[in-house]
Specification:
Layout (H helix, E strand, L loop, with lengths): L8 H12 L4 E8 L2 E8 L2 H11 L6 E7 L2 E7 L6
Antiparallel strand pairs: 1-2, 1-3, 3-4
Length: 83
C-alpha cells in the first residue's frame, strides 16, 4: 500500500519552505485511508505549530516536520479517542 499526496506541489513546496529556515514547520492530515494533504504550515517555530495542532478537531492523526535549532523533528499527533 502506498501513501498518496506526498508528491503534490503544495506538500513539496511546504517541505522546501520548512527546511529553508529555522522555525519552519508543516502538518499533514489524512483525507482517506491512503491519502494525505497539507493542513497548515508556518515559520513561527514550536509555539505556532502547537497552536495549529490545538485547533485541530478531527479524529485522524497528524504528521509533520519542524525545524528546531538546525534539527529536523518529525511530528506525530494522535488525538484522544483515535484507534
Amino acid at each position: 500500500m502506498s501513501l498518496n499526496g506526498l508528491d503534490t506541489p503544495d506538500v513539496r513546496e511546504a517541505y522546501q519552505r520548512t527546511i529553508a529556515e529555522a522555525g519552519g514547520w508543516f502538518l499533514l492530515r489524512y483525507t482517506s485511508r491512503d491519502s494525505v494533504q497539507l493542513l497548515d504550515q508556518g515559520k513561527g517555530g514550536v509555539h505556532e505549530a502547537r497552536t495549529a495542532i490545538a485547533k485541530y478537531e478531527e479524529a485522524s492523526p497528524l504528521y509533520g516536520l519542524l525545524i528546531y535549532r538546525r534539527r529536523k523533528v518529525l511530528i506525530k499527533f494522535i488525538p484522544e479517542g483515535t484507534s
